[in-house]
Amino acid sequence: MFVACAALAHTFWTGLDGRHAALAFGVLVAVGELSRWTGAAVREAAPLGTAAALSYALLGDGAGGAGQVVAVVAAASLLGCVPHIAQGRSPVRDHLARRVLTVAFAALCFQSLSRQGVFRQWHGPGHVLLVLAVLALTALCDAVLAAALAHARSGWPFGPRLREELRALPGIGSAVGATGAVMALAVTVVGLWALPVFSLPLLLTHLSFQRYAAVRSTYRQTIASLARATEIAGYTPAGHAHRVAALSRAVGRDLGLTWAELTVLEYAALMHDIGQLSLVDPVPAGATAGLPAAEQRRIALLGGAVVRQTGVDAAVAVVVERQADPCPEQPVAARIVRAVNAYEEMARDAGPGGPLRALEELRLGTAGDYAPEVVEALARVLSRDCLATAPAG
Predict the structure, then answer these.
(1) Which of 68, 109, 156, 274 has a CA between 20 and 30 Å from the CA of residue 238?
(2) What is the pLDDT of residue 120?
(3) CA-based torsion, 372, 378, 384, 389: positive or negative
């Protein structure tokens, strides 16, 4: 927050240039923060605030310098986050740091080009291309910052997190960048009345995205409820499916799976034991990893048939069906579910040293039963979890 404090102090000392523009953009940034999505985790929780901040950074001489841009955006963002902080809805420190640093980068790039007269030499399409180039560099900067903050906070590898951030850019990120550029260009032509006109489509898109996220959340809760059927019927221990799902998703992220692949993996891990409902005699403690291969295969096929009847994505059913196939023939998601399920069953009731013994058994089984890269990713995830939960010495 040193950058924000320095910019605020400098702006307070020198005064505001273009007060009407600063006030209008500040209000829009604050409104965007007030309307930020506080439900399921999303990459861009406040698209309207981000678009307004980028637009102000791309305003050029009308913004009064990069320091003033950072000061106005920082003050407005903090003001808009006050209700969220007061209600303890979600952590905002990383979000504010990203917003300030990203806007500072955009403002410095744009105003450096503006001072050199580049935009006066490039007219029409050339001007637009330069603005898009600045936006592309800003998006890359934001992705690097997001990955670095996530790495520092959770210990996840920087590379997979950066790939995940870059894959998310064509979605809401492109809409935010385009809206910011259009608003900046429109303000220079028709004035500040362009802000509410061009921000309305993005706000409506944001509301639609919130509804979509709510539907996805309900869909996941339905799958989680189906997964609990084996626990209620006494076939598997309580919480087994959720533990396998959480650990499988962590391993998938370590291996660099995309968001869509992680979703399929999580759903398949939640429902990986649902085939046991077709058994007349329950498997002791629901531990299928120690069963003969033919019996594991039969339960997996029964589970896939049940998943298909529920209307869940067919890709989930494929993973459930193939979790008992020979390791070289399995898709990555099935390899992950198989290894994580076996680990959870081995370590569940083995006492304090159980996790280490279970991991060692999995490593011994990498000759044919478990994929070596999955087992090593599981070891890295478990190591990070232990470091994150270890008491301070």
Answers:
(1) 156
(2) 63
(3) negative
For 338, the token pair is 């198989």
| Burial bucket for residue 52 (CB in 10 Å: 0-12, 13-18, 19+) | buried
Closest by Cα among 336, 328, 334, 244 to 286: 244
Q: How far apart are CA 64 and CA 172, in angstroms?
A: 29
Place of tokens 């002791």: 284
Can you tell me the distance from the alpha carbon of 227 to that of 270, in angstroms, rounded to the nearest whole number?
6
* Sequence-distant contacts of 28-34: CB under 8 A, at least 24 apart: 28/52, 28/195, 28/199, 29/53, 29/56, 29/72, 29/73, 29/76, 29/77, 29/80, 30/76, 30/77, 30/79, 30/80, 31/80, 32/80, 33/76, 33/77, 33/79, 33/80, 33/81, 33/84, 34/80, 34/83
Q: Which of 337, 152, 346, 157 is nearest to 248 (CA)?
A: 337
CB 390 within 8 A of CB 384: no
| Calpha distance 46→56 (Å, rounded) | 16
Question: How many residues does this entry show for the chain?
Answer: 393
Q: How far is CA 116 from CA 124, 134, 252, 276, in A?
A: 18, 15, 47, 70
Percentage of the chain modeled with pLDDT above 70: 85
- Rounded to whole angstroms, the Cα distance separating 138 from 234 reads 53
Confidence of residue 212 (pLDDT cuts 50, 70, 90): confident
Is 2 exposed, middle or buried, given 0-12, 13-18 or 19+ CB atoms closer than 10 A? exposed
Q: Widest CA span of the chain, in angstroms?
A: 80
**Which sign, positive or negative, has the C-alpha torsion 271, 273, 279, 282?**
negative
Cα gap 221→76, rounded to integer Å: 36
What would the 3-class secondary structure string for 212-253 be?
A: HHHHHHHHHHHHHHHHCHHHHCCCCCCCHHHHHHHHHHHHHH
| CA pair distance 291, 62, nearest whole angstrom | 71
- Give the C-alpha separation, 296 to 276, whole Å: 10
pLDDT surpassing 80 at residue 160: no
What is the rounded CA–CA span in Å between residue 116 and residue 168?
Answer: 33
pTM of the model as a whole: 0.70
